Amino acid sequence: MYRDIASEYISFDDKTSKYILFACIFHLILLVFFVISTSSLRYWFSTNSNIYKKEIKMITTAVRVDVVAMPRLTVKELRKITVDLNRVSKFPAANTDKDIVFKKTKRKSFTDLLKDLSRKKIKKTKPKKKSRVSSQGLRKGSKGKGKSKDFSNELRNLVLAGNKISKGKALVSDTVDTKGVINSEFNEYALALPDLIRPYWKLPTYLIKRKDSLKCRVRIYIGSNGKLIKTQMFESSGLKEYDSLAINSVKNASPFPRPKRSIRNNLVRGDIILGFPL
Amino acid sequence: MRYILLGILVFTYSFVGFSKIIEEQVKKISHDGLSIVAVGAAGLARVRIAFINKKKPTTFVSRLESEFIKIVKNDLSFYTKYFEIKNSDSKKSDVFLNSKLIPDYSLWLRDSVDYLVNVYAQKDLKSIDFIWSLYDIKRKKNSLEMKVSLKLDKKLNKLPRMMAHKLSDQLYLTLTGNESVFSNKIVFVSDKNSTVKTYRGKKYKKVIKELYLMDFDGHNLRQLTHHNSIVLSPSFSKDGQKILYSLIDSKNNIRNINLYLYDLKTGKSRVISSKRGLNSGAIFSDEKNKVILTLSKSGNADIYELNLITGKARKITNHYGIDVDPSFTSNGPRMVFLSTRSGKAMIYSLDPRGTERDVKRISFVGKFNATPRFSPDGKEIVFSSWLDGSFDIFRIDSKGNGLVRLTKDFGSNEDPSFSQNAQFILFTSRKMVKKKRSLSKIFVMDRDGEILNLHINDQKLGDCLSPKWSNSKI
pLDDT tens across A18-32, in order? Predict the structure, then answer.
C-alpha cells in the first residue's frame, strides 16, 4: 500500500523530471559560485600580510627574577656575561678553555688541606676526593656531557649572587611541525638570534625619538652553515631608512651559529621572521 | 546537447573554484610554522661629528677660536654614547666663500661623517664674532648657524666658558632634540678651609665645611658661604637661583642643626628654620614657598612640610621609626624617603599631600640603605647601600623592581643624585689616600655606571661631599 502511494508521488512525467534536473544544476552552479566568491574575495581583498598573520606564531620567553639580596655584579658586568655566554653556548667551544676556568675556581679549604696531608699516607681515600669534586659540579664540563647543564650552572654561579633567576611559566610557545611534533630546538635557535642581532640594531636619535612607534618585520633565510642566504621585507615600517637599518643589522650579525641538522630545513625555508622591535 | 553544455559549464566553474581553494591551502601549508622573534628596542647609533681643524693658533683671535672648539668638544665628549667626535682637515674640494664653508658633501659622506662643524671668527674694533655652522651631511644642508659675539676688553684674556657651554647646549639640542646638562651647575660641600689648631699642647683639626658651586665639568669653582662652621646637605630650588642647606650652629654653647637659604643673586643667606634638634635634609617642594625637611623637635626624626611664609610645619611622616632623606617628584606627586620602621634602614615612598598617606615599601634587601633620590621623571630611584664593607650605588625603579648595581671596586660610593633627563648620576667616592687618611671626591657616571670624567677632582679641595645638580640652567 505504501509503495503504491510512493509510486504515485514519485512517478513524474518527462517535463517535471527535466525541471528537477535544471533545478539541481542551477543549485550546483550557485554552490560553485558561492565557493568561488568566498575564496576569491578572501584572496583578493585582503593583503598578503593579513593572511600570514593568522599563521604566524610569536616565540617569546620569560625569566623570573626574585630579589633575595643586593646584587653583587654591576649592570656592565651582567651585560658582558649574557652576551659572552650566548656566543659560547651557541658556537662549539674548545674543551680546554672550560677546563681552565673550572680549575681556577677550585679552592681548597684548610680542612681539605689537612685531608690531603692524610691522603698522602693512605692511598685508599683518593677516590672519595674525586667523587666530592664531581658532586660539586666543578668538573662536569670535562666529561663532555650535559652542555646545557654546564651552561645553566655557570649562569647560576656567576649571575645569581643577589638575584634568584627561575624560568618563567608563561609566554613560552613551542612551534609545532607539520607532523605535530614540538620543535623546541628551533625555538631555542630562534630565541638566540635577537641577542646576536641586537648589538648591530641601532638607530639615530631622530628615529628613536619619533612619536609614532615604527615597526617592521624581516623574514630571514639561513643556510645550513649558519650564513644568511637572503632577507625579505615582510612588513614594512613605511620608512625606507628604518627598513634598511633593520635589514643591515641582520646582515652585519651574519654568520649565525651553525644550526642542527633537524632544524636546517625550517631555516632554509625562512620560517623565522624578526620583529623590529616586535 | 543542452545538457552537455551545461555539464561543461558546471565542470569548468567548479574546477576554477576548487583550484582557488587548493591554491590557498597550499599557501597556508607553505607558510605554516612561521615564527616571529622580537629583536627588541634599538640601541642608539652614535652620531659622528667632525670638527674642521684650525691652523696653529698664532693670533689672539685664533687662540680664542681654538679654545672655543676645545671646550665644545669636551662638552660633547660627556655624552660618549651619543657622539663620536672626529678631527679632520677640510677637504680640497670644500669651498670657502668669505671664510664661510660650503662642504663637499659626497666626500664627507664617504668618510662616514654625519655632521660637520666649522667655526670662524670675525674681528671688529669693538668685538669678535664667532660664527658656528653645523652641516647635516646626509641631508646636504646647513642645519644650524649661530653667531656669538664677544666684547673686546682689556681684561679679556680667556674665553668665558659659559659662552661655549651655551653653544654646545644648542648643538646638543639640534642634534638630539633634548636639553643637555652643559648649562647646569653643581653645588657641594668641601672641607677645604679646615685648619689645624692646638689645644693644651695637643694638635687637632678644626673641621670647616663650606658650600661651593661649580660648572658641570668642574671648572669655575666658587665658594658661596663663609660660616666657619659645618654645612650639610645642600639642594637647589627649581629655578636654580636658591640653595637650601643646613648648618651646625653653636650659639651659647648649644649646638643645633639649622636650615638656611642662600640666594645666588644677592649672595646672602638667611635662617629659615631653627627648631630644636635637626632641621636638615631639606628640599624644595613643588608648591611655591614650601620646603620639605627632617625635623626632630618632637624627639623623633620625622619629615615635615614647612611653609616659608607662615612658618607652620605639617607632618608628612608620623612613625616611631626614624624618617629622613626626602626626595620629591612632581609625578603623582610622590616622595621617597629613608625609614627605620622595619628595623633596618629601608626605602619607602608616600603621597606627600597627606600624613602617612599611601606608604609603600620599595627596598626589601640591603644591610643599610641610604640617600634615596628620585629621577626627575619619577620613574627611577638611585640610592647607596652597604655591601661588602663599603657603600655602593644601586638603581631601582619606583615600583621596587629592576634592582641593579652601578658601582663596584671604586671605593666607598655615596650621595648619588640624578641629573636633568636622568642621563647622569653624580656621586662621591671615598678612597684611601694615605695609611690613615681617606679622601672623598666627586664623580659623574652615566645611568649604567660608566664613570665619565675625573677632572672635577682637585687634591686641594679636600673632602667633597653631598653634590647636587641644579636641574635648570643658571
Answer: 888 888 888 989 888
Say which amino acid occupies B340: T
Instruction: Suggest the residue from B39, B403, B410 to mutate for an interface test with chain A (most A CBs closer than 10 A).
Output: B39
CB-CB neighbors (< 8 A) of B23 in chain A = 43
ipTM over 0.85? The verdict is no
SS3 state at B44: strand
How distant is the Cα of B230 from the closest Cα of chain A, in angstroms? 33
Query: Which residues in chain B touch residue A277, judged by CB atoms under 8 angstroms apart?
Result: 38-42
Contacts of B67 (CB under 8 A, 6+ apart): B158, B159, B164
Q: Grid coordinates in use for B276?
A: 630644636
Inspect the interface and report whether the beta carbons of B13 and A178 lie closer than 8 Å.
Answer: no
CA distance B139 to B149: 29
Beta bridge partners, B405, equal: A74, B394
* Residue the block writes with cell 629622613: B324
Inter-chain residue contact B407 with A177, CB threshold 8 Å: no
- Angstrom distance (rounded) from CA A186 to CA A269: 13
Per DSSP, what are the bridge partners of residue B444? B426
Whole-structure pTM value: 0.71
Which residue from B21, B37, B403 is facing A194, i.e. has the nearest CB? B37
> Is B177–A40 a contact, with Cβ atoms under 8 angstroms apart?
no
Question: C-alpha angle with apex A178: A172 to A183, nearest 5 degrees?
Answer: 35
Query: What is the rounded distance in angstroms from the CA atom of residue B71 to the CA atom of residue B75?
Result: 6
From first to last of the 278 residues of chain A, give the pLDDT tens digit: 555 655 555 555 677 788 888 888 889 898 888 877 766 655 555 444 444 444 667 776 666 666 778 888 888 888 777 544 444 444 443 444 444 434 444 455 666 666 665 555 544 444 443 333 333 433 333 344 444 555 555 555 544 445 555 544 433 444 444 444 556 788 888 888 888 898 899 888 778 877 778 889 999 999 999 999 999 998 898 889 899 999 999 999 988 989 888 888 888 888 889 998 88
Q: Do A175 and B408 touch (CB under 8 A)?
A: no
